[in-house]
Specification:
By secondary structure, the protein is α+β, with helices and mostly antiparallel strands. It folds into 2 domains: 193 residues, no CATH class; 97 residues, Alpha-Beta Plaits (2-Layer Sandwich), CATH 3.30.70. It is built from 11 helices and 4 strands, in the order ααβαβααβαβααααα. Strands 2-3-1-4 form a 4-stranded antiparallel sheet. The protein is rod-shaped. The chain starts with a helix and ends with a helix.
Length: 303
């Protein structure tokens, strides 16, 4: 096909949008809403996974050194812990820090601390607070740390890790099912809307077929029309998602109590996702609009 022919058919596609404003607008709205439903569900799933990971980072291993351990022993133990593949961070807690934390956690016992102990922390052990990369094997990592020379005990909560693992599995299944269901429902609605749009112009298609127009010549304007409508719907869905996401993000981040309790600080900033979201919306919208229009013209071409 010559360039002039492609330009003519492209112009026809844009002209069809203007001629059939109501049906084009209906298709635009259906594609827009469908993209929003699927996109929001996918973002919810991504953030839920991120929040679960944030909760998992709070599952730490508490390491207690033997009372009276020397600086060299503490340093050697720290190096051994840091060398482990599953260890993420290691924080040294001196006996003085441990005593201060005990005092802070038991404010009503301050007189006892002052009268009998004072500032003498020699009876307290040094220790470490360790976080891991993979909570699934935190029990194995805890056991490895406990075997290090100079370590009196190492403890963690493998039950928390197991709960998070099960929670992530359930969330993945439920969210995946919802997203797939929304995609199927959206495709059915979009298909019916596109068929209605094409059906309203069936006489135009049949006349073009009778005068000798090829199938490609007939389909191209509908292809362009559907692609442009889907593209615009994708852009619209992106900006609506952006506004809604920012509003929810700012609201949740402003709740410091929720952040500390539920790991909401792990919500993904929109800036980290905007390129992927825009690309997904535009590509999905254009493909759905274009393919839906082309497929819907098939029955009217066979005359």
């Amino acid at each position: 096909m010559k360039i002039s022919g492609i330009k003519y058919l492209t112009d026809q596609g844009f002209e069809n949008i203007w001629k059939n404003k109501m049906m084009a607008f209906a298709t635009f709205c259906v594609v827009l809403i469908s993209l929003l439903l699927v996109g929001m569900a996918a973002l919810f799933y991504l953030n839920l996974n991120s929040m679960i990971a944030g909760l998992g980072s709070q599952n730490e291993i508490v390491v207690i050194m033997e009372v009276g351990s020397t600086e060299e022993q503490n340093k050697a133990a720290e190096e051994a812990i840091r060398a482990m593949a599953n260890v993420d961070t290691v924080e040294f807690i001196s006996k003085e820090d441990a005593l201060a934390r005990q005092r802070a956690s038991l404010p009503n016992a301050e007189k006892i601390f002052t009268g009998y102990i004072g500032d003498d922390a020699s009876f307290m052990p040094d220790g470490f607070s360790v976080t891991v990369n993979n909570n699934d094997i935190i029990a194995d990592t805890t056991e490895e740390i406990g075997a290090i020379t100079g370590v009196q005990s190492a403890s963690s909560s493998p039950q928390v890790a197991e709960f998070l693992r099960e929670l992530r599995r359930v969330v993945t299944f439920v969210a995946g099912t919802i997203v797939i269901a929304l995609i199927v429902v959206s495709l059915i609605i979009i298909s019916n809307t596109t068929k209605a749009s094409v059906f309203s112009r069936r006489e135009e298609i049949q006349i073009m077929k009778y005068v000798g127009a090829t199938n490609g010549f007939i389909r191209m304007p509908f292809f362009i029309e559907g692609m442009v409508t889907g593209f615009v719907a994708g852009v619209g869905a992106f900006f609506i998602t952006w506004a809604a996401y920012r509003a929810i993000y700012n609201l949740m981040i402003g709740q410091s109590m929720l952040m500390s309790t539920f790991g909401i600080g792990s919500i993904i900033p929109f800036s980290e996702l905007r390129i992927q979201i825009l690309a997904a919306y535009i590509i999905a919208g254009a493909l759905i609009g274009a393919l839906g229009s082309v497929i819907s013209t098939r029955r009217h071409i066979d005359v």
